[in-house]
Design a protein that fits this description.
The complex is a heterodimer of chains A (about 325) and B (about 325). Chain A has about 325 residues and is mainly α. Helices cover about 75% and strands about 0% of the residues of chain A. In chain A, strand 1 and strand 2 form a beta hairpin. Chain B has 13 helices and no strands. The longest helix of chain B has about 40 residues. The relative contact order of chain B is 0.14. The chains are: A mainly alpha (about 325), B mainly alpha (about 325). Chains A and B meet through helix 1, helix 6, helix 7, helix 11 and helix 12 of A and helix 7, helix 8, helix 11 and helix 13 of B.
């Protein structure tokens, strides 16, 4: 186990190094730098330009800048945002909480939603419920998260609020659709603002995972040992829960843990749609005005979080399934 | 969805299918499934899948609209009409200026959407094929050669996976500016990874089969083993993945455009139109519904077709219905 752990750790470090180097190279090629981020369209004199470059260390050769970037990163210094006149660390502390909440809640929705939907549609196979979830699962995979997000806003925020329309009026009146639902978009109570974004984040992979769980449960249900369990007179519910679900969970766990890695990328888009000031929307904003440091610094954090998740997934996997360690072919 | 079909439903579907040829072929297949080649069998099972056929139909309609549309609606879809229109704001659907209304610059929404579908499809098809070829090349090399080649390629794939692809896109598109080719290269750069992974896995599996051993022992060259055995046998999952690459590329393009870093105004990409609608959909929901609906319809149709292909090409599903 020890040597396996060391090996995975080494591979993770290589991955992080490579990914961050790719980003560094990409961002250095970028035409704009601190000067254009600071001055915008205005032309500045050569002396001022030079001062800015010196201030942000852009006058040094690339190799030195690259070394400096790693030196700072190891010490936990992510750089300085020219546009906001703030350190990137400060930007991070402002945005990380929002992004973190979104990712965590999105993950929870995704895990528990897919468990429930997958189990129920396998248990009630070919029922209306099953067909509906199957259809919605495919649909959820085909609809980009920003369209889901905007549609959520329309149906849970705008329409109930413009409830002058005859159709929604009775619902609001009888309390089926609380009239405060618009606060999902325009925050009033803190937690409420996370409901729709978290569902939007979670729904993307929830659909895929529910389908996976359903089909692997159907496979298990056909197996001989399940017939045995039924034949010896166990209650159907118990057979499904104790025997079918437990065995069907194995492929689901793989896919679910891998999909947790993707959630960071999905969260970036969702933040933008819902106007949450998170890491992702900050990156997009800084990239548009070519403020390199925050893009690189915040991306580094996202890459580290992703790599760490991958590592944890791998390690917990090797604990669950010893064959991976022995075979030494960690194809997660 | 066809994985849920019981034999009873399969019969029901079969009686629905109109083509007499299909019926004859199906009845032959029922009696003697072995006589069909695997491709014939797959084709039959694809056309028996209702969802897949519906998807194919929608896709065909959208394709015709995207190809023929621009010849019919050849008005200017980029420039604003004139000042009073802009001041009055978007026209609602059913106005004399367009059945689906106009956007905030008084441009016909339907004309723009038709061109948007064309742009999405054109880009996605090119991206999917380029990405698939690249992915097959690297995945095949990694799987077939193994050793350090496999190690290097797998590490590179992992590195790209560690950066959320939206961020790669943000960086790349900001550098090279928004153009067709920038979006193209970004989508290919992020799109080949999954194909490479998939093809590597299936090559690894095929490589250990006995028929490869047999081919080698009869003196077949590496090139022949690859072209005559490995590639044809690894192809079915790749065909499925092309379908999903196309829908993935359409989604990614719209995401980049929506975030304001892919295509930009006045290019009538669906993502651009949705971005445009973002600030106004509370008062003018049609601005969101037309491009959003077309985008969903387009990707949904492709995913349906891809799903049908997956079921049809899966040998495990053979003879199930």
């Amino acid at each position: 186990m020890g040597s396996y752990l060391l090996k995975r750790l080494g591979l993770t470090l290589i991955t992080v190094w490579g990914a961050l180097t790719i980003m560094f190279v990409l961002l250095i090629v970028m035409p704009g730098d601190a000067v254009s981020a600071k001055s915008g369209e205005k032309a500045v004199g050569a002396a001022i330009e030079n001062n800015i470059r010196v201030k942000y260390g852009l006058d040094k050769p690339l190799v030195v800048q690259y070394a400096k970037y790693w030196e700072n990163l190891v010490q936990g210094d992510l750089g300085y945002s020219v546009q906001n006149d703030k350190s990137v660390n400060q930007l991070l502390s402002e945005t990380a909480q929002n992004s973190g909440r979104l990712v965590v809640w999105g993950g929870i929705v995704q895990i528990f939603g897919s468990l429930a939907l997958g189990f129920l549609s396998a248990a009630r196979r070919n029922s209306v419920f099953d067909r509906l979830t199957s259809f919605l699962s495919i649909a959820a995979q085909a609809i980009p998260v920003f369209v889901t997000g905007l549609l959520f806003q329309v149906f849970f925020g705008v329409i109930p609020n413009q409830a002058t329309s005859k159709f929604f009026k009775p619902f609001v009146f009888y309390g089926f659709l609380p009239s405060e639902w618009r606060f999902f978009i325009f925050p009033k109570d803190n937690w409420k603002t996370y409901v729709l974004p978290a569902v939007a984040v979670g729904i993307v992979n929830m659909a895929f995972l529910a389908r996976l769980l359903r089909s692997s449960m159907l496979e298990v249900i056909r197996a001989d040992y399940l017939r045995t369990a039924k034949a010896k007179g166990l209650a159907p519910g118990r057979v499904l829960l104790k025997h079918a679900l437990r065995n069907a969970l194995i492929p689901w766990v793989t896919a679910a843990s891998l999909s947790l890695v993707e959630i960071f990328g999905i969260a970036v888009q969702t933040e933008f749609v819902f106007g949450i000031s998170g890491i992702g929307s900050q990156i997009a904003e800084s990239a548009q005005i070519q403020d390199t440091a925050p893009v690189l610094g915040l991306t580094s954090i996202v890459v580290l979080a992703t790599a760490l998740t991958m590592l944890l997934v791998d390690l917990s996997y090797s604990l669950l399934d010893p064959r991976i360690r022995v075979g030494d072919k960690a194809v997660a | 969805m066809s994985d849920s079909q019981t034999p009873g439903q399969a019969t029901e579907l079969r009686s629905d299918s109109a083509s007499a040829v299909l019926k004859t072929a199906t009845s032959v297949g029922d009696d003697l499934p072995e006589q069909l080649s695997s491709w014939q069998d797959s084709r039959q099972r694809f056309f028996k899948n209702k969802t897949a056929v519906v998807g194919l139909f929608i896709l065909a309609v959208l394709l015709v609209i995207a190809v023929v549309g621009p010849f019919i609606y050849n008005g200017d879809y980029r420039a604003a009409r004139n000042l009073p229109d802009i001041i009055n704001g978007p026209e609602r659907p059913g106005s004399p200026y367009g059945i689906f209304g106009t956007d905030s610059l008084g441009r016909n929404l339907w004309h723009r959407a038709v061109r948007g579908v064309g742009i999405s499809l054109r880009l996605a098809v090119v991206v999917a094929f380029a990405g698939t070829i690249l992915g097959m090349l690297f995945g095949g090399l990694a799987g077939y050669l193994g050793g350090w080649v496999d190690n290097v390629i797998s590490r590179i794939i992992e590195m790209f996976y560690a950066i959320p692809y939206v961020l790669v896109g943000i960086a790349a598109i900001t550098i090279f500016g928004p153009s067709f080719w920038t979006v193209f290269f970004t989508l290919v750069a992020t799109g080949w990874l999954s194909t490479a992974r998939l093809f590597r896995a299936s090559v690894l599996q095929i490589r250990s089969q006995d028929y490869i051993e047999a081919a080698r022992s009869t003196g077949a060259s590496t090139k022949r083993v690859l072209m005559a055995h490995v590639v044809p046998n690894g192809l079915p999952p790749i065909i499925v993945s092309i379908a999903f690459s196309i829908s993935g590329a359409i989604l990614s393009e719209s995401i980049y455009s929506f975030l304001g870093i892919g295509f930009i105004e006045p290019t009538p990409s669906l993502g651009v139109m949705i971005r445009d609608a973002r600030g106004q959909f509370q008062t003018y929901p049609h601005l969101l519904f037309l491009p959003g609906g077309l985008l969903v319809l387009l990707t949904l149709a492709i995913v349906f077709v891809g799903d049908g292909l997956r079921d049809a090409l899966d040998p495990k599903m053979r003879g199930v219905d």
